[in-house]
């Protein structure tokens, strides 16, 4: 199975530390490790720059910058004060879901299911993939025209209500029931300074 090993993300460590993440000590590459995924930070860039997948394939997946590596073994376990145990999913936006899922399929990623979303005025569809312990969610058809693009991240924590009290209203919103049955979600505010949309989600009761 193709797995997600790393994401290259813009920014510095300070906003992540403020949100309760443990970052790597110097002189290691600036960033943090969540479960089996490494987030490597680059101060001079914007958003999510690219990803590293375990396997082999092309350097572009419908515009998503991709590095491929052989299985490097497990990351060192990291304990985060906010309780984060892993990334739940990575969100990609595309103006053509058919085109993007086709490119991912050609590279060997298996589309597990699709789901209708959005509203009658703005219909959307989501496609879901499994990349090791992380889910890839592809959302289309979303303007503007062009290649697919990385959008946001969601991490798993045991209790979003407790975490909201720990972090405070300046950094996060109000916990609420998630779309996924039996789960609750907590969205990080823009004022927190992360370079990408980010949320915390309670564990899937079917997976833990």
Provide structural commentary.
With 208 residues, the chain is mostly beta strands. The chain has a single domain (3-70, 80-201), classed as 2,3-Dihydroxybiphenyl 1,2-Dioxygenase, domain 1. The protein has helices at residues 14-18, 97-106, 160-167, and strands at residues 3-10, 31-34, 37-42, 48-54, 60-61, 64-69, 86-93, 111-118, 123-131, 134-140, 149-156, 176-177, 184-187, 198-201. The chain has an eight-stranded mixed sheet, covered by helices on one side. It has a six-stranded mixed sheet with strand order 2-3-1-4-6-5. The chain is globular. The two termini are 21 Å apart.
Category from helices, strands and their pairing = mainly beta
Supply the number of helical segments: 3
Name the poorly predicted regions: none
Please provide the count of β strands.
14
User: Domains counted in the coordinates: how many?
Assistant: 1
What overall geometry do the principal axes of the alpha carbons give? Answer: globular
The fourth-level CATH homologous superfamily is 2,3-Dihydroxybiphenyl 1,2-Dioxygenase, domain 1
Across the major sheet, the strand order is 8-9-10-7-11-14-13-12
Looking at the structure, the CATH topology is 2,3-Dihydroxybiphenyl 1,2-Dioxygenase, domain 1
Mean pLDDT: 94
Radius of gyration: 17 Å
Protein name: Glyoxalase
Organism: Paraconexibacter algicola
């Amino acid at each position: 199975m193709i797995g997600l090993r790393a994401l290259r993300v813009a920014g510095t460590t300070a906003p992540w530390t403020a949100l309760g993440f443990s970052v790597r000590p110097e002189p290691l590459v600036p960033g943090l490790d969540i479960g089996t995924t490494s987030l490597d930070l680059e101060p001079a860039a914007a958003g999510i720059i690219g990803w590293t997948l375990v396997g082999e394939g092309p350097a572009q997946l419908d515009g998503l910058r991709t590095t491929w590596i052989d299985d490097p073994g497990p990351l060192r376990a990291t304990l985060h004060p906010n309780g984060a145990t892993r990334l739940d999913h990575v969100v990609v936006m595309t103006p053509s879901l058919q085109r993007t899922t086709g490119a991912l399929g050609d590279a060997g990623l298996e589309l597990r299911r699709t789901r209708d979303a959005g509203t009658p005025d703005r219909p959307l569809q989501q496609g879901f993939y499994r990349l090791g312990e992380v889910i890839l969610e592809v959302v289309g058809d979303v303007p503007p025209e062009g290649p697919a693009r990385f959008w946001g991240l969601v991490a798993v924590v045991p209790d979003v209500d407790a975490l909201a009290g720990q972090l405070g209203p300046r950094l996060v919103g109000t916990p609420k029931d998630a779309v996924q049955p039996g789960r609750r979600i907590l969205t990080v505010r823009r004022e927190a300074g992360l370079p990408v949309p980010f949320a915390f989600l309670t564990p899937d009761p079917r997976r833990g």
